[in-house]
Amino acid sequence: MIDIGLSKIALIGAVALIVIGPEKLPRVARTVGMLLGKAQRYVSDVKQEVSRSMELDELKKMKESMEGAARDVENSIQTNTSDFEKSWAETTGAASSDELPGMITLPEYKHPKKNWRLKTGATPQWYKARSGVRTKALSGAARVARYRPRPSTSSGQNG
């Protein structure tokens, strides 16, 4: 690097004072300072970008190594599983791994979905009677006969 000491900076300042002149020296010094600041910011930005790219490369390498390890584990599990299935089939003598000897196969569970008959059928009769839910359907004629007002037969109204 360039070794600039205090004596060299004083010499450069004296030469600049003579060449540029005392009137323009503050303006030139301000401009040089701004340019040096911009250069320093540019260099720091470049350094940050380089460090980011290096970190990104390291992360990519780490990702690839993890994916490779995961693939190796998956392959070993698959080979162990297939070996186990073969040895199980040989020991049990079963033709396929789905049917095991001595095991009862049950029908597959079927969800009732939204069958309202199942839902209402599950309600107890005492609850329906207490809450006033009709348990039997009436035909139109039966409903008319049931709810028709009855004629009153009092002796004071005939007359």
Structural description of this entry:
The protein is an all-alpha fold. Helices cover 65% and strands 0% of the residues. The protein has five helices and no strands. The longest helix is centred in the middle third of the chain and has 68 residues, at 25-92. It is found in: Cell membrane; Membrane. This is Sec-independent protein translocase protein TatB. Pfam families: TatA_B_E. Residues 63-100, 138-159 are annotated as: Disordered.
Secondary structure layout:
Blueprint: H1 6-20, H2 25-92, H3 116-121, H4 125-131, H5 140-147
Please describe the biggest sheet, giving its number of strands, its sense, and whether it closes into a barrel. Answer: none
Whole-number average pLDDT? 81
As a whole number of angstroms, the C-alpha radius of gyration is 48 Å
Number of strands: 0
Class inferred from helices and paired strands: mainly alpha
Q: Uncertain segments of ≥5 residues (pLDDT<50)?
A: none
Shape estimate: elongated
What is the terminal-to-terminal distance? 136 Å
Helix-strand pattern:
HHHHH
Number of helices: 5
Strand portion: under 5%
Helical fraction: 55-70%
Biased composition (Basic and acidic residues): 63-74
Region (Disordered): 63-100, 138-159
GO cellular component, one term: TAT protein transport complex
Family: Belongs to the TatB family.
